[in-house]
């Protein structure tokens, strides 16, 4: 692999990106907000909206389309769970960790590392990354919603109840069983 050539095409792609002010507007705006202006909480709220996630993932891959066909998108008006509801954990530090990864994503997007063509080949590694986060935090984002009155074992169909009853004693967490719920199923290695 010729490194000089490689860098050149990367910068050319970045430049093509820079020539699309509309596409660039949203992420750049967010980066600027990150860097100074505006309140920090404001940035968190803004960057948690579906529209923000859609701004890259709608054209870059098929993630948004898969989400829109899933139960967590509901009818699109009354939306059970946004992208951020599942991917941005609540506790502050966890949140920052995800945001820092997100800044890396903005770099990848601008440098054109990810495209519809190569997304499927990068995908298993990304899925692994998400599973790792969810296993480590005991699927905390799922549990933000599916808990208490929203997760009553006695009210669940038998198959679900039997599986959920043994979860704690077996040291299992939601993502051990509910993979590929919102996105196409990726087979775990
Ligand atoms: C500026 C463009 C951009 C925006 C906005 C964006 N993403 Fe991404 N995202 C990417 C790119 C590019 C990748 C692939 C990067 C890589 O290879 O790690 C990615 C990867 C991911 C992954 C796979 C694991 C990872 O972090 O690498 C998840 C999950 C994800 N994005 C969720 C989100 C969510 C949720 C939002 C909205 C809060 C969002 N993204 C907004 C560009 C973006
Ligand atoms: C913001 C709240 C929220 C979050 C976060 C969330 N859910 Fe849900 N989930 C819901 C609601 C509301 C429904 C009922 C949707 C419907 O079917 O109308 C649901 C439905 C489900 C269902 C039954 C429908 C189906 O497609 O099988 C499963 C299973 C499920 N969620 C698992 C999960 C898992 C696993 C996670 C974490 C990766 C998660 N949920 C994250 C709110 C949430
Ligand atoms: C040991 C595997 C296992 C684990 C761990 C697990 N589930 Fe399930 N869950 C199932 C099965 C199996 C079903 C039934 C699905 C079916 O019949 O299609 C189910 C069904 C559900 C449903 C639908 C219930 C209904 O009323 O129809 C929800 C919501 C759900 N799980 C959420 C969760 C959440 C949240 C967690 C983590 C707290 C979790 N599950 C952990 C196996 C598991
Ligand atoms: C109900 C929870 C939930 C919602 C809503 C959700 N995701 Fe995911 N996402 C997951 C889980 C769980 C994984 C890990 C792979 C799997 O099991 O499907 C994942 C994986 C990913 C990946 C890695 C590639 C892959 O297919 O595994 C990307 C990128 C991603 N999500 C982005 C998004 C974006 C952008 C949105 C909104 C358009 C979104 N997700 C909505 C739960 C969710």
Considering the chains and any ligands shown, give keywords for the structure.
189 residues; mainly alpha; Multiheme cytochrome fold; 11 helices; binds heme C
What do you see in this structure?
By secondary structure, this protein is mostly helical. The chain has a single domain (3-177), classed as Orthogonal Bundle (Multiheme cytochrome fold). 63% of the residues lie in helices and 0% in strands. It is elongated and about 60 Å long. The model has no long low-confidence stretch (mean pLDDT 81). It binds heme C (4 copies).
Rg, Å, rounded: 19 Å
How large a portion of the residues is in β-strands, by DSSP E?
Answer: under 5%
Order of helix and strand elements from N to C terminus: HHHHHHHHHHH
Mean pLDDT: 81
Bin the helical content.
55-70%
Structure annotation, total helices: 11
Ligand list: heme C
CATH fold description? Multiheme cytochrome fold
The domain count comes to: 1
Determine and state the CATH class. Answer: Mainly Alpha
Q: What does the overall shape look like?
A: elongated
End-to-end separation in angstroms reads 28 Å
- Main sheet overview: none
For the secondary structure, the number of strands is 0
CATH second-level architecture: Orthogonal Bundle
């Amino acid at each position: 692999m010729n490194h000089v050539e490689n860098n050149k095409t990367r910068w050319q792609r970045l430049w093509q990106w820079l020539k699309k002010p509309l596409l660039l507007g949203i992420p750049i705006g967010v980066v600027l907000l990150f860097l100074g202006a505006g309140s920090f909480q404001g940035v968190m709220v803004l960057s948690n909206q579906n529209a923000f996630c859609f701004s890259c993932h709608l054209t870059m891959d098929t993630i948004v389309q898969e989400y829109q066909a899933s139960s967590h998108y509901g009818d699109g008006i009354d939306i059970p769970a946004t992208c951020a509801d599942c991917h941005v954990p609540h506790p502050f530090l966890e949140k920052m960790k995800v945001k820092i990864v997100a800044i890396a994503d903005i770099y990848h997007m601008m440098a054109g590392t990810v495209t519809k063509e190569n997304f499927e080949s990068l995908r298993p590694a990304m899925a692994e990354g998400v599973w790792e986060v969810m296993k480590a935090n005991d699927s905390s984002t799922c549990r933000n919603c599916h808990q208490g009155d929203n997760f009553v074992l006695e009210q669940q169909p038998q198959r679900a109840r039997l599986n959920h009853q043994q979860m704690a004693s077996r040291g299992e967490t939601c993502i051990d069983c509910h993979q590929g719920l919102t996105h196409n199923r990726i087979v775990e290695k």
